[in-house]
Amino acid sequence: MNWLRRLCGRRPPLDPEQRQVLEQYHAQPAIAPSSPLAALRFVVADVETTGLDPHADRLISIGAVDVIGGKIRLDSAFETVFRQPSASSGANILIHGIDGTTQLAGQEPATATLQFIGHVRRSPLAGFHAGFDRVMIDRAARVAIGEAPSNIWLDLARLAPALFPGTGSMLDHSLDDWLEKFGIANHARHNALADALATAQLLQIVLAQAMAQGAATLADLMRIEQEQRWLAQLNR
Question: 101: buried, middle or exposed (CB in 10 Å: 19+, 13-18, 0-12)?
Fold first, then answer.
């Protein structure tokens, strides 16, 4: 009945502390596209889910790592597990390693969502094949708190091929392919925080390359990604 709740304009009930987090988020100014890349704070996000269907499966966990001025800030790493109505399948647990007990004891979804929003604030979000992460987070947020965050998202699966000549054949390659190319280690693949950290290292490389090629602002980076999307559509 989520569609009916949205149609009627009714939000899920939030306690005063939760409402305050949401109000603080709305009170913050959006990040201007003209913001300089050299000093900008990005939040790299990765999710673990009950499956690969972004429109049907559930969000289990989010991991996030800050990249500020091109530097990773491990002291502000973020991770949360969403409480599940029932544990995911054994085959699914083998992938991400979040056991059934942990899933059932996770954070209440509104709390987990608002913790993430409170951490991210208005900073641009980045991910690898970020469309999947965005849909999963947005769906969970709409159910839990009645709305999705409005942050800008950037997709490293598009930016990386655009910025490194001769790697166009890697457009459809996986995160693992790009990590191997740049010698980035990830010792806990399919852990949301570990994947976010590895992706943050890839973002560092992408940002350095973008600025070396003359990109100076967030708008420049967004333009590069959009042009890569257009090229991908033309080549289909």
Answer: exposed
Domain edges within the chain:
38-234
Place of tokens 């992706």: 199
**Helix, strand, or coil here: 151?**
coil
Separation of alpha carbons 221 and 124, rounded Å: 11
| Beta strands 125-127; 153-155: pairing state | parallel
Contact partners, residue 185, CB within 8 Å, separation at least 6: 179, 198
Please tell me the pTM assigned to this model: 0.92
Closest CA relative to residue 48, chosen from 156, 134, 133? 133
67-77 burial code (b ≥16 CB/10 A, e <16):
beebebeeeeb
Contact status, residue 58 vs residue 83, Cβ threshold 8 Å: no
CATH 3.30.70.3040 fits 38-234, yes or no: no
Q: Which two tokens stand for residue 55?
A: 């429109």
- Model pLDDT for residues 30-64, shown as the tens digit of each residue: 999 999 999 999 999 999 999 999 999 999 999 99
